[in-house]
Design a protein that fits this description.
Elements lengths: L1 H9 L1 E7 L3 H10 L4 E6 L5 E7 H4 L3 H7 L2 E8 L1 H10 L1 H18 L4 E5 L6 H10 L13 H11 L3 E9 L2 E8 L12 E4 L4 E10 L1 E2 L6 E2 L4 E4 L1 E5 L5 E6 L3 E17 L1 E19 L2 E4 L13 E9 L10 E17 L2 H21 L3 E5 L2 E4 L3 E13 L2 E4 L10 H5 L1
Parallel strand pairs: 5-7
Antiparallel strand pairs: 1-3, 1-4, 2-3, 6-7, 8-12, 8-23, 9-11, 9-15, 10-12, 13-14, 15-22, 16-17, 16-19, 18-19, 20-22, 21-22
Helix pairs in contact: 2-4
């Protein structure tokens, strides 16, 4: 059995020999130390089949002459013959070896980072933080220390009560559970409540501090509405103590502004001519490669729009994937004289007006009333009128106590 196993590496032949002296052939092989196995004799005794090592086959020359046998190789077994077959099909086997090499390389890396269990922190923010700490999709698995990574995330996100980091195959799975941390209420420093813009006081309710205005009074930007300086007086209006607080209250300020938006009737309209060219751009680690020079092919285009489309290969796998493909489409355009119709002008100006109202709403203003109307003249269209907004005042200006001693109390109350 041992010579069969070891013989596979040196080569084994299945041989069929024809001759009248088959018994003598076997005895001669035995006398010369040539091992034969799996011997079978034909029905008429003139044919014998056996297995022999490749190295012993070349020693049969003298024995064949003496026994007048004619050996014919029927089957070749073992590594040397496999190598010969591989030489004839070298490209196929190289491809197989490369495939296994690539699989071995890819199996030793992290290709997905999965985050689960979070509610406040997003998966994208956690993966971005890991990328800053050199933990990213595509890195070697043996460089990921789960214990160290767990402690690093605990230190970064204080509201994580439980965390688990596990490597499963090519997956790095991070499971977290968040807890609600009780934040200490920061003590607010003494400050005045001041006007954020010009306007008229609609209403004022003071909770802390001293009111400096009344409803109906006009104020300017920066004026003190509720002072953070509180004077405590005793009998006979004698000043006992001066306290400094964070002014608090509800002050509604109304602002009236003029609105005017103009649109010229005549304009230049952009028209696509239908001519366009596509440029394929590969970005490899910050270096750009073009299939051909785009400038040489665009000299005939006087004006054109550039539409860029592209994506990062494997962006869901890793933020550091180095290959990007962009497709730039250059479309030729020309500008022709045109005129806005009344309906078009109303639509465009109306959209601008709604955008302005939305912008003021995002700033905290609330629309009370408006008197804006559409107006058409000989050469232009316009939206004109006035807008009235109201806003709750929340801006504070800090009080520096060193400038508000008892000798300078008048300045602090202004």
């Amino acid at each position: 059995m041992t010579h069969k196993i070891l013989g596979w590496f040196s080569g084994i032949l299945y041989v069929r020999a024809k001759g009248k002296e088959a018994e003598r052939f076997v005895n001669l092989c035995r006398n010369h130390g040539i091992v034969l196995w799996g011997i079978s004799v034909g029905e008429n005794g003139g044919e014998i089949s056996f297995y022999i090592l490749l190295k012993d086959f070349y020693r049969l020359r003298k024995i064949v002459r003496k026994s007048k046998s004619f050996p014919v190789v029927k089957k070749r077994i073992g590594f040397p013959f496999i190598c010969g077959y591989m030489k004839k099909n070298i490209s196929f086997f190289l491809g197989v070896f490369c495939m296994f090499g690539i699989l071995f390389f890819l199996s030793g890396r992290i290709w997905e980072i999965k985050v689960s269990g979070q509610s406040y922190h997003t998966k994208e923010s956690i993966i971005k933080y890991l990328n800053q700490k050199d933990i990213y999709g595509g890195m070697a698995k043996n460089k990921v220390n789960c214990i160290r990574l767990r402690e690093m995330l605990r230190k970064k996100y204080r509201d994580i009560g439980w965390i688990s980091v596990e490597k499963t195959g090519c997956l790095l799975h991070i499971r977290i559970k968040e807890v609600n941390l009780i934040k200490k209420e920061e003590k607010k420093k003494a400050a005045h409540l001041v006007a954020e813009h010009d306007g008229t006081i609609v209403s004022i309710v003071t909770r802390k501090g001293t009111a400096k205005v009344k409803a109906g009074k006009k104020v300017k930007k920066g004026d003190i509405l509720i002072s953070g300086v509180v004077k405590i007086k005793g009998d006979g209006d004698a000043l006992v103590e001066t306290d400094y607080v964070y002014a608090d209250g509800d002050v509604i300020l109304e602002e009236k502004t003029d609105y005017r938006d103009i649109l010229e009737k005549r304009y230049k309209k952009k028209v696509y001519t239908g001519r366009e060219r596509k440029i394929y751009e590969w970005n490899l680690s910050g270096k750009k490669f073009f299939l051909y020079n785009p400038l040489n092919n665009l000299e005939s285009y006087k004006k054109y729009d550039i539409i860029r489309k592209g994506d990062v290969f494997g962006q869901k796998i890793s933020l550091r994937f180095p290959v990007k493909l962009n497709v730039k489409i250059f479309r030729e355009v020309k500008y022709v004289p045109a005129f806005y119709t009344k309906e078009e002008a109303k639509r465009i100006l109306g959209e601008r007006y709604r955008d302005e109202r939305e912008r003021r709403k995002e700033q905290g203003f609330q629309m009370v009333r408006d008197s804006v109307y559409f107006k058409a003249s000989e050469n232009r269209y316009a939206y004109e009128g006035s807008l009235v907004f109201q806003k709750k005042q929340e801006k504070h200006r800090r009080i520096h106590k060193k400038h508000n001693t008892s000798g300078r109390m008048r300045t602090a109350l202004q």
